[in-house]
């Protein structure tokens, strides 16, 4: 059993990279379909504002939630709870790939555009020889659960029969897609992974360690993409700030 805390109705499991890998291994070997979700400040604010269905989804019995942001750590401190280790995809993906290779687990990459997903596959295989990527598919298809496009994608995933499925559509689109298609997917472990493929492919740089240490990764990304992120960052900060204030006063 993995201990957990709760931040604004979202459980956060107290994983280390080692215990996370062990939990994944148990799920694959026991053929027990398991969700491995990740939470950051944006997820917390969405789940407590316009996407409240996320609260129920993140509390599914067959799922775990990984800390993927300094905002979650800050919220834990404000509520006098144990601070979880941050395990972000932009740095964890490489040890994760090495772990999958060593365990001979298979993986399917779903998301991004055709160029990015193809480059992600190539870079993973170059950096981690022996990694078994059994299939890839870009994220540009009709994601309506009953669409012919969507059914073909799910059928293709199941034909490839991966132990691990990485879904990178961005939040909360990827969570909604996983929720709607969960019963139809045969993979042992399912990971919504946000923009992981942009980092794997090299499309986006990882923030320097000094930014990570000072909890300023958001600022690094904002400087690189001010136009695209200006509205989202402002809105997310205000909403997350309101959530933190409520937690602190409570």
Outline the structure in words.
With 250 residues, the protein is of the alpha/beta class. It has two domains: 1-87 and 207-250, no CATH class; 92-204, 3-Layer(aba) Sandwich (Rossmann fold). The chain is built from twelve helices and eight strands. It has helices at 17-29, 41-47, 53-58, 70-78, 89-103, 114-127, 148-160, 173-181, 196-201, 209-213, 217-224, 226-249, and strands at 4-7, 10-13, 34-39, 63-67, 106-111, 132-137, 164-168, 189-192. The strands form two sheets. A six-stranded parallel β-sheet has the order 4-3-8-7-5-6, sandwiched between helices. Strand 7, helix 8 and strand 8 (189-192) form a beta-alpha-beta unit. Helix 2 (41-47) crosses helix 12 and helix 11 (217-224) runs antiparallel to helix 12. The chain is globular. 37% of the residues are buried.
In summary, what is this structure?
With 250 residues, the chain is an alpha/beta fold. Helix content is 52%, strand content 16%.
């Amino acid at each position: 059993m993995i201990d957990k805390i709760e931040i604004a109705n979202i459980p956060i499991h107290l994983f280390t990279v080692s215990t996370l890998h062990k939990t994944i291994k148990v799920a694959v070997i026991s053929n027990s379909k398991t969700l491995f979700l990740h939470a950051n400040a944006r997820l917390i604010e969405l789940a407590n504002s316009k996407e409240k269905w996320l609260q129920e989804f993140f509390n599914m019995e067959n799922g775990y939630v990984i800390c993927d942001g300094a905002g979650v750590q800050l919220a834990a401190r404000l509520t006098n709870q144990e601070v979880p280790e941050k395990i972000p995809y932009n740095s964890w993906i490489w040890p994760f790939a090495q772990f999958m290779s060593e365990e001979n687990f298979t993986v399917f990459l779903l998301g991004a555009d055709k160029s990015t997903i193809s480059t992600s596959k190539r870079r993973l295989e170059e950096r981690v020889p022996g990694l078994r990527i059994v299939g890839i598919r870009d994220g540009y298809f009709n994601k309506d659960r009953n669409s012919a496009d969507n059914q073909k994608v799910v059928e293709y995933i199941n034909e490839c029969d991966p132990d691990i499925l990485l879904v990178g559509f961005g939040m909360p689109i990827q969570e909604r897609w996983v929720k709607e298609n969960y019963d139809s997917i045969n993979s042992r472990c399912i990971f919504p992974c946000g923009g992981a493929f942009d980092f794997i492919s090299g499309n986006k740089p990882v923030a320097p360690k000094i930014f990570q240490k000072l909890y300023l990764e958001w600022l690094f990304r904002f400087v690189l993409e001010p136009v695209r992120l200006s509205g989202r960052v402002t809105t997310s900060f205000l909403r997350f700030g309101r959530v933190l204030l409520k937690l602190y006063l409570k």
